[in-house]
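debug: dumping io for the single-chain case to check the tokenizer round-trip. Nothing else runs in this session.
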Amino acid sequence: LNNYHAALADYDMALKYDSLNAQLYNYRGWVKYNLGKDTSAYYDYQKALSLDSINMKTFSKRDLAYTNMSITLGNMSLLEFKRGDFIAGEEQCSRAIAYDKSNADAFNNRGLMLLSMKKFEDAMKDFNHAIFLKPQFPVAYNNRGLVNDGLGRFEAARNDYNMSIQHDENY
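debug: decoded output
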């Protein structure tokens, strides 16, 4: 619904009642990122990672903490991408994947970093894996199309762009 200002107010209120909830900090960071408040988003992501590090020591919360850390690191990689620091973004994504090897978004984001560094074959592997994990992932098809374009595989690129549109006609 993209009402980020209302969402921010809701997360602020929720954190007043549950200030140790890593997911709330991650989600609020995502909202701030979408509002262009990158520095503030970064601090929320750092807080989420800190809280999840604590939760990893509690056996009952360990799986959730790993998943949350993976999502948070993937989100942080987009901040690095926005800054043009593709190497740092790739590192964040690799850390995200280490925590959760089923995080299709992290593979897609890392592929985007690799594509930006013109590492086409490595980017292709990550986009392929993202699509394997999430077969109806229009962004990954589009990004793989960009790689195919960069490699001169224009028919494959066109097929990827069509798959992207097939999975999301607004894409």
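debug: round-trip ok. The chain is about 80% helix and 0% strand.
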